[in-house]
Amino acid sequence: MNMKTDVNPFSLIMRWATVPFRFKALFWGFMISEIRGRFAGSIGGVLWSLLTPLANLLIYIFVFSLILKIRLQPMETGTDSFAVFFLAGLLPWGAFAESLSEASSLFLQRAAMITKVAFPLELLPMIGVLVPFFLHGLGFAMYLGYLIIKGYFHVVWLWLPVVIVIHMVFALGMVTLISSLSVFLRDIQQFIGTVLTLWFFSTPIIYPLSMVPDPFSLMMKFNPMYPFIELYRRILLQHTLSWDLIGTAGGLAAVVFTGGVLFFSRAKYAFADVL
Fold it and tell me: Domain coordinates of the chain in residue numbers?
């Protein structure tokens, strides 16, 4: 496998940051094509990106609110509504999980284009993150509207864009790493779905962390998605901001993104030979 060492990490990150601006037409062309391709031939179109999470929400509400009868403490969670609590974690998770589930085939499905056309490959992981976050963002915007009507709005919400950007940087690092590895390790496609399912249930999305026994709750705080989900809930529902969680999420995003970019920069030269 022929891999080259590219320039230093700072230069690589700056290159990634400027690619959408230097190749503006290509970037928007990929974005529009990807969104259209998702719903090509579909009568419902973009509505499916709203109906699918809504159906999942109704199922979870039925099971956990009516059958298992989970009761929330407003002093702890910021709400006594299971639906409000659940959506604050489910919507950010949905965008992240969809990005990762598609990452393993990101380069493989475009093998013909990669081997025959010269273009910045960095655009593909970016599109692989931006499109899911955009589509799930439609549902998230509706959720925010509902919270505003119910009186949840608070000035702390102004920090929400910061959390979303950090979350997207973390997702981009993960997608870049997984998509690059998948070119050489095709088995990743087979178990990524199982990993995401286990990751979902080991993240306090359906349940508050206080319901988990102490030894396991401590372990869950080492879950990479924990600081992100907790930040969304604290900002939206509890109207508080944790600098510790911001620092943890930001540091995690920086490390994962840098690692993904460094691996990609060395592996991309071998893509044409393997694809």
Answer: 9-26+45-274
